[in-house]
Amino acid sequence: MNEMAKSFMDPQSHHICGDYKVKMVINALPPNGGSGTFSYSKNSYFQKRSSSVEESKIEEEIQKKLDVEKLASASNMIIRVVDLGCATGPNTFTSAHNVLEAIKHKYQSQCPNSEITPEFHVFFNDLPSNDFNTLFTSLPQDRNYFASGVPGSFYSRLFPQSSIHFAYSTYALHFLSKSPEVVQEMNNPAWNKGRIHYTSASKEVVDAYATQFAKDAGSFLDARAMELVPGGMLVMVMQGVPNGMPYSDIINGTLFDCMGSILMELSKEGLFDESQVDSFNFPYYAPSPEEMTKVLEKNGRFSIERMELTDPAPWLKSMDQVIPEWIVHVRAAMEAIFTTQFGNEVTHEMFQRLTKQMLDKCDLLETKYRDKIQFFVVLKKKE
Description:
Blueprint: H1 3-9, H2 45-52, H3 55-65, H4 68-73, E1 78-84, H5 91-110, E2 119-126, H6 132-137, E3 146-151, E4 164-170, H7 203-227, E5 228-239, H8 251-268, H9 275-278, H10 289-299, E6 302-310, H11 323-342, H12 344-360, H13 362-366, E7 374-381
Parallel strand pairs: 1-2, 1-4, 2-3, 4-5
Antiparallel strand pairs: 5-7, 6-7
Helix pairs in contact: 3-5, 7-10, 8-12, 11-12
């Protein structure tokens, strides 16, 4: 293998040469591991607050629609639960605890005189490069479940057929398996030159991202349809957008626009070649309810029990108070993808400038952060 090919294939290489300039498809990477300043374990509080908005709704759906007695009796009194895209922070343990408590309460209401209760096996799934060491060294000592790690992409099969009773994914499914390939092609109408996302891009770029999402979400649902038992439940909490609203109209759209403009500034300052921006498209998509419904109808193996957009931050009083901390949270979740393309120095400088730019746009952000952009979906595997 020649040196150019080695450089291109090495995920840590930031040197892009010749014909490879517009052929780099960016793959999703896990959030920052460890317990340092910019680690996800220390910077996932916003995600916790946002996902907690849906906590009572999940309990309600379990109480109303999950037949725990039937599921437990058919599986030797063992209930299997999986967190798809668990990352490394404490949020996954909080989610697991809340789900298990809701399932136990439902079983007790169905079988008030039972002398035995189900045992629980919780699977924590994320990409193989996820920091599972940090995850499992922080497992609660007083947990009332058996725990296992399952490395692998949730866009493919992870478990045996009809083996999972309850699956949930929180703040992970908006990360695509990869950026759309056509946005990397110089001669394609969808070439996303000078931008890193579909925010404010041409219709061709937006359509390419939408197509990639539909493909990934279809693969995700196909895999879960095989793994869940009939009557099993799947819950998804992720970024979303109202039907017909351009992504540039919501707060994260402003975030991606600023990231792209800062990277273009840095390239003009000579820190790297502009082609590295042209070949970089962040693999992140927020679907609308209409888009999600189409994917579910195509799959056909789930009933839609609940689907809605909610305000992810009803607790937030003012944007200017949280912008610096919010950007650190964004960094903890997204930094690895940027450093793989641009290196540590450029990525650090980008996030430093990003905080300032977002503070400068605070008045604009104040008009956007109340949008209902958190997507909550509850599905049941058809009998």
